[in-house]
Amino acid sequence: MPASNPRRRSALPHALVMALALVTGVVPRTHAEEIHVVTHDTGGSVIARWHEVTSLRLEGTEVRIEGSCMSSCTMYLGLPNTCVSPSASFGFHGPRSGTTGQSLADTSAARLMASHYPPALRNWFLREGQYLQGSHVVTLSGRQLIAMGIRRC
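Request: output the structure for the sequence above.
Response:
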């Protein structure tokens, strides 16, 4: 009889904990020692950021936003372990093409981003922010976001 694989046996409980965390939104604290500090993030692909945010959520990583956080970077705001410095700045605009930079009429990217915001910010973004076109960007301070319910660092 072949020897059992101890690696396979130990991976199953971890996978179950991670699946439970994803379903319930309860973040395991085993990896919470890690801190991801944002000092200057210009954004990028909404889908790539969604993958990153999902991974950080599962790992229980603390995110500290201390500087500029633009565009898709703002999706960090939906993580339970995120805090912002009052002096941080956040840039919001409507969805744009990653290749051409042109504004997009498709609002699925905007809805995905908004799903990562607390209610007051989500309401503003869906009412106004997602329609900012071209080079129009609204900048909000960490102080303003703290007033909307984001945890202060």
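DSSP finds five helices and five strands in the chain.
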